[in-house]
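Feature request, filed as a ticket because there's no other form

It would be nice if the structure record came with a short human-readable summary line next to the tokens. Right now we just get the raw output. Example of a typical job, pasted below so the devs can see what we mean:
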Amino acid sequence: MKKKIRCAIYTRKSSEEGLDQDFNSLDAQREACAAYITSQKAEGWVLMPELYDDGGVSGGTLARPALQRLLSNLDAGRVDQIVVYKIDRLSRSLADFAKIVDRLNEADASFVSVTQSFNTATSMGRLTLNMLLSFVQFEREVTAERIKDKIAASKRKGMWMGGLVPLGYDPDGRTLTININEAKTIRKLYDLYLAHGTVQAVKVQADRLGLRSKRRTTPSGEERGNNLLERGQIHHVLTNPIYAGRIRHRKQIYEGLHSAIIEPSKWENVQQKLAANSGKSRGHKHTAHPSPLAGKLFDETGDRLTPSHTSKNGKRLRYYISRRLVTDKSRKHPEAWRLPAPQLEQAIASAGYEHFGEQSMLPNLIQDLKTNEVAHLNKKLESLVCMFFSGKTVRCWSDLIERINIAPGRLTIMLDANVVAKHLVLPIERLLPDALTINQPFQIRRKGVETKIILGNAPPEIDQTLVRNIVKAMEWFEAIKSGETFTQISTRAGTSKRRIQDVIDLAFLAPDIIEKAANGTLPLHFTSDYLIKTGIPVDWNMQRKMLRDPATTNVRI
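Raw output as currently delivered:
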């Protein structure tokens, strides 16, 4: 009697297009696989009734609801054979497929492709499979390169290649047509800039005139936009060559097929004035919002932290960010730093105040300290503490700082020996080097959009945002298992499909990590944003390594 081989059919489709039809691509895949299993009835193959369908999910990741259920049943010994229509339905990544094959081997199971004959139980079958997967991955990468080349070639011809339609235009195939009403806003913004000379002044006048952003309708029918223009939006309008009838692709600008709203000569004039004002702003030493630690901050990779800012509700928010976030925008850098400037400056001031305020500071700082010098130098030291570390005027004490190194959980502040010696009216040779370096542990804690830098070791605090997102992810995962699509869930939840696809990965966190999240004992970097940006490994041990490995536990914002 033949041994019964329990067969599970797995189907997948990358997009949700057509899934609402009575007979869709998933049904076609399942029908072909079921027919193949029936043909192997004499070999003991039996079709399992449970459905494993991933509709609208990319094959570039293993974090797929139906696939995870299938792999869990495989690990539990309830599946002997996985049957797919084509191998790329199971995975498009050679690395991911190798993981699946390992799990198949551990479960003493195998996998079959209906359109490609493979037996993963043999070494020759695995070799053939790996070769084919290499070509699948190669084809995928070549296709991506061809798409990029096609976009570049189309833009060189002046075509508009999609994306958010800019204010002032309406889409018209591979070009744009002028929206007469919105074009009036664009022309007014350019006239205002030429009249007033600064983006901030344009913002004030634009608010007074009630100039608004483009009204947009989302695929779900939600109305967005039509708000008063933000400063950043105005700057984007003033610098966008599309309004001069041109198309930008990376650093190149080409003549477009669409009509210009702004005369090219007028656009060039505005660019020159913007560049001149930008240079003036950078060269001014007494700006309203200085970043006095610029050039003195470095992260653990040696990358300099550079000043940056954003505006929200009319308020300017300053940051110090790793320079690679500015110079290499083509790549994501989840490990890079983005620290709120006022909190960082206050933390440094507090660390310096505490360091110089120690009773033993004077003998630790000055060698060959004489008794008759103590009273005089104590007053000088107190004056230095008040002057440099009052926390009120950063510019006053920033000269004292020679360099600051920021590593995960630790500030290392190196003081400028020349400045200290000058203030104490002592030869620099009398200062002890060890006392000129301050090592201060710190933590970063986020509550909503607010960020705090906390010196020392703070008590546990539950990340409510992460906990809420884990609960949502589990709820959405259960909805997917019950047959809902991402589109249906996004409509019901009132959020975007992309957001749901990002957050749902949190449902695959290891149970002990979820428990740590609930009791507030996770590392502070382990936030929802961090996990979504860096990606969540399917393997629980890899997730735990993210908690332990210093290379992946950097506190980031």
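Something like this underneath would help us a lot:
The domain at 169-283 is CATH 3.90.1750.20 (Hect, E3 ligase catalytic domain fold).
Residues 282-288, 550-557 have pLDDT under 50 and may be disordered.
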